[in-house]
User: Fold this.
Amino acid sequence: MGSQGTVRSGRAALLRAALLAPLLLQLCGASCPEKELEDREEEANVVLTGTVDEIINVDPVHHTYSCKVRVWRYLKGKSNVNRQILLDGGNKVMIGGFGNPRICDNQVSTGDTRIFFLNSAPEAVGPEHKNELMLNSSLMRITLRNLEDVEHCVEGEREGTEGNGGFCCCQTEGGGS
Ligand SMILES: *[C@@H]1O[C@H](CO)[C@@H](O)[C@H](O)[C@H]1NC(C)=O
Assistant:
């Protein structure tokens, strides 16, 4: 009778919800407020794709660490990476600031490939980070969509166009829209 149909459609709804929820969380960063991609791109003076080669300088108290990262491609700011930062013949860089609690997605493992939003280390973080780039906002997975979104932001900024925020996904503060 009717009850069986209800059970079935209830189950289908549950399944749909179970499939959609993580997708929405991932898209909109609802679990951790994140600035819009456009702002994240503007704040970072270097954006690159790379693979984590080695994890070093783990701080036992603050649980922060640095990584040696093999660079595949600069999406922004190649000229901001000076020679002291480059390692192993120029295709690796040292990146600090993993585990920074001000950054939502701040954890990597060896072998992970990500888009990194970076800045040169400010004087304040001390001499041990002098020749490092610092993680400036959340790590991003490499998908065609993500690469295109970041490239749109970089191009938009270069051309000085206003209001290209539409390209930059729905990572609004508080996870809205
Ligand atoms: C990211 O860089 C901006 C400057 O462009 C700075 O104001 C901000 O504090 C940095 N964020 C983190 C988490 O270091």
Q: What stands out?
A: The pocket of 2-acetamido-2-deoxy-beta-D-glucopyranose is lined by residues 43, 100, 102-103, 119, 136 (CB under 6 Å). The helical segments are 2-28, 37-43, 144-159.
